[in-house]
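ok here's the first one, seq then struct tokens
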Amino acid sequence: AERFRAGLKTQQVLSAITVSIGISCMVVKADEKTRSGGYDLKKICAKLYKLADDQVYRAKHEGRDRVCAADPFSPLKTRENRKLFEVLIVEDEEKTAHDISHIVQIKGFQARIAHTLKEGFKEFEKDVPDAVLLDIKLPDGDGTELFSQVHASHPETAFAVASGHGERKEEILHLGIKEFFLKPIDFDKLIEWLIKQRDEKI
């Protein structure tokens, strides 16, 4: 039932696997090993069905629309054959950063953490993220500097600020940053925003 709630065409995967190897599970007796050429067909079928379950699990937790029934052994793909939607969290408070990262990953996103502005630039240059969640007050500068310096060359990356300084909200949004989250962060709203940004990219 969980597979169907995920909207995945599990039966197509199972059918494709069965057809692709030409095995009819009806020939496998429950009370004895049936061997062909030295291979245990029951073990083969069990491994193949586990493969299908693994594909379904990955598809669900990686935000895929469905698994590829035509080639169940190939890597799962989105329309753009891209990685998981990734969020760079630039936050100097270690516990806050890890709490955000934990929630984000539970909800099916990838997350990286930077604790300073310098680390933020380094992580951004290493691999451009899909979204960035910025703290304003960092040990070595204002978090909005990261947005100001990279947005022109990477407009596809969505930026949001998470801060306890609500008085700066209008100023920050005026810069072009898409969202402002007042600390303590409402995680439901954060995940809702991330889902929206991810869906706009698919």
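and now the second one, same deal
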Amino acid sequence: PRRIEPLERLGEILVVLALTGELVAMFGNVVLRALFNSSLLWSLEVSEIALVTMTFVGGAIAYPRDQHMSLQALVQQLPLRWRPAIAALACWQVFAMSLVGGWLGWQMMLSRWNQVTPYLGLHELWFAGPMIFGMALLAYFSAGKAFHGSVRVGVATGLALVVVVAALVALWSAFGPQLRGYALPATFFIFTVQCLIGVPIGF
């Protein structure tokens, strides 16, 4: 059986705690409404934290277990010698997207740094933290998975993705205003290619 890493185990514990907290808050709220015509006003805040934790941390620990949905129809038709490179390239794209997601979570946290919840007085860190941690876990797992088959293939595909991204950034920097009309078609094209090479689309 596959060895579970300590970070993966930590993610499991956080997801279990989040699910338990949400069940207790929701069940307690239902009981109070039914018996005393009252409610736990803070239950919504607990549920939001639990949902963020289960979504991002749970999604991250599902990745190394291959529990994400992906389209493999095209990949299965390719020659066997191509498949390790395609798999590594998909992992590096997940890595890149997790970095972007973590950065967005960080920016969201900074923009709401002085805000607290009305009932429990919880800081924004309680909501953005699970997203940032989940994206960091996903980046760690996807980078490790990229080297799973071959270190040489993992390095080559990672460098190839860096070159492509750098070229796109340079192209946008040079011709940004003229390329805005192509942004939506280009995004759709990239998304389609990602789906076809097996980048996960859900879990």
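notes on #2: The mean pLDDT is 90. The two ends are 21 Å apart (CA to CA).
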